[in-house]
């Protein structure tokens, strides 16, 4: 019998790449989509090839909602999947502070609703719960210069706290002898791609570079360009999601993993890398930093003399997490995770070239 997987968040970046991977591995994939007024959920899919999978009978969309246990029960009863991947979430950190109730409902209660539906309908199923490096919040860098599975969680904002609450619920259901839920959690550091939403800083930057190159935009406005993150390529990271569940299924051991590259870069470095793709020989100079080399409201980046980046205080996060970097040792040893399958430079090159092509096609 063909393996079946249920994926929430299928219209997002990770859901698209995970669905593609699962179909290639021979799964029949059921994707959860929320009902909207357009009644055309296929139009929300970020990878066009997913529509081909639908036409070939390898992938189907079902209307439902994580906040509707009835819809979740109905879908699980209908398809009886062997694996569940809960990727649906309110993920924009800055906007999360403005609507904490919705964030908590989706990211925490929604995850619990799905897990309970699984336990009621298909308790032998294995579930993957997506978490975030924002769980580490403002980690004490003197003790934890890199973060791994043993680093204490200190979520700094609404988004991180909602994911922490989901994590605690997963652990509780997993440890309770009455439930013994087969669930594993993936704590993924930042991962990007050509289909990342333009509201995220990486794609905001690569799209703006393409617009500037085409003469359609003068400069980019950013917040704290000295924030540091561990950035990887999303198609690589969904491989790790499946590997976590597959290992749990084969060994019976339910282990959580942090996934990242082990390399850290600032937003400032990301900006320069993106501009270097579009302007290979350009002279780039930062001006207006303070005496320690940190950005101020007056900081700008000049590319061949023209101001292409300005700092706008409006984009500073109220609960900024200044530094995150992964220690992926456990994943390397137990999942055979390759933390540098796609380099940072290659990822940014693909994103910039993709956006240049998009801008050119729409001109």
Mean pLDDT: 95
Q: What fold name goes in the CATH topology slot of the largest domain?
A: Rossmann fold
Enumerate how many helices there are, as a single number: 11
Q: Compute the gyration radius: what is it?
A: 21 Å
Run of helices and strands? EHEHEHEHHEHEEHEEEHEEHEEEHH
Low-confidence stretches: none
Main pleated-sheet profile: 7 strands, parallel
Q: What structural class is derived from the secondary structure elements?
A: alpha/beta
Instruction: Identify the overall geometry.
Output: globular
β-sheet strand percentage: 15-25%
Portion of residues within helices = 25-40%
What's the total count of β strands?
15
- Spatial strand sequence of the major β-sheet: 3-2-1-4-5-6-11
Number of domains: 2
CATH architecture of the largest domain: 3-Layer(aba) Sandwich
**What's the multimeric state?**
single chain
Give the class-level CATH name of the largest domain: Alpha Beta
Task: For the record, give the distance between the C-alpha atoms at the N and C termini, rounded to a whole number.
Answer: 48 Å
Question: For this structure, what is the CATH homologous superfamily of the largest domain?
Answer: NAD(P)-binding Rossmann-like Domain
């Amino acid at each position: 019998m063909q393996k079946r997987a249920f994926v929430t968040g299928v219209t997002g970046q990770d859901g698209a790449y995970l669905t593609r991977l699962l179909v290639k591995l021979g799964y029949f994939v059921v994707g959860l989509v929320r009902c909207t007024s357009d009644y055309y959920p296929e139009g929300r899919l970020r990878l066009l090839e997913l529509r081909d999978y639908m036409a070939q009978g390898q992938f189907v969309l079902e209307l439902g909602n994580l906040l509707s246990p009835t819809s979740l029960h109905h879908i699980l009863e209908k398809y009886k999947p062997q694996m569940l991947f809960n990727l649906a979430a309110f993920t924009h950190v800055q906007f999360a502070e403005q609507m904490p109730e919705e964030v908590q409902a989706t990211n925490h209660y929604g995850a619990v609703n799905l897990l309970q539906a699984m336990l009621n309908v298909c308790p032998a199923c294995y579930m993957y719960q997506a978490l975030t490096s924002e769980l580490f919040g403002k980690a004490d860098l003197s003790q934890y210069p890199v973060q791994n599975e043993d680093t204490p969680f200190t979520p700094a904002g609404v988004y991180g706290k909602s994911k922490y609450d989901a994590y605690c619920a997963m652990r509780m259901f997993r440890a309770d002898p009455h439930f013994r839920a087969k669930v594993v959690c993936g704590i993924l550091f930042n991962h990007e791609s050509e289909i990342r939403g333009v509201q995220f800083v990486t794609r905001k930057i690569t799209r703006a570079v393409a617009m500037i190159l085409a003469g359609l935009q003068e400069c980019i406005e950013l917040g704290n360009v000295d924030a540091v993150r561990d950035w990887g390529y999303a198609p690589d990271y969904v491989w790790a999601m499946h590997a976590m569940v597959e290992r749990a299924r084969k060994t019976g051991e339910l282990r959580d993993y942090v996934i990242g590259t082990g390399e850290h870069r600032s937003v400032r470095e990301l900006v320069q890398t993106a501009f270097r793709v579009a302007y290979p020989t350009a002279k780039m100079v930062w001006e207006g930093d303070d005496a320690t080399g940190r950005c101020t409201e007056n900081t700008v980046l000049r590319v061949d003399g023209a101001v292409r980046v300005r700092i706008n205080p409006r984009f500073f996060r109220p609960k900024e997490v200044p530094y995150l970097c992964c220690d992926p040792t456990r994943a390397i040893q137990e999942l055979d995770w390759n933390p540098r399958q796609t380099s940072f430079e290659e990822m940014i090159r693909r994103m910039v070239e993709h956006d240049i092509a998009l801008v050119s096609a729409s001109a």
